[in-house]
Amino acid sequence: xxxxxxxxxxxxxxxxxxxxxxxxxxxxxxxxxxxxxxxxxxxxxxxxxxxxxxxxxxxxxxxxxxxxxxxxxxxxxxxxxxxxxx
Length: 86
Ligand code: SF4
Ligand code: SF4
Prior knowledge:
The protein is mainly alpha-helical. It has helices spanning 8-21, 62-67, 74-77, 80-85. The chain is built from four helices and no strands.
């Protein structure tokens, strides 16, 4: 399913919101290399340093509910949009 078209400003605002609510930092798979989190977000996507899948807590993150996400392991598998296109 295609997401709604958003203006660049709306997109930026949504991204900031997702980053603020993102719980990735408390996930066992998380590795901090100073990059942007909220890997589920279409303009963020895969992590550059997380490679090992040691569990994913996206299911209990408020962003999952807010954005109606259906996947997980966005850090290793790509954003919700990327995973929906496979
Ligand atoms: S759903 Fe996962 S990747 Fe997306 S903001 Fe929440 S914890 Fe981060
Ligand atoms: S996307 Fe999922 S697996 Fe990756 S760090 Fe976030 S919660 Fe953990």
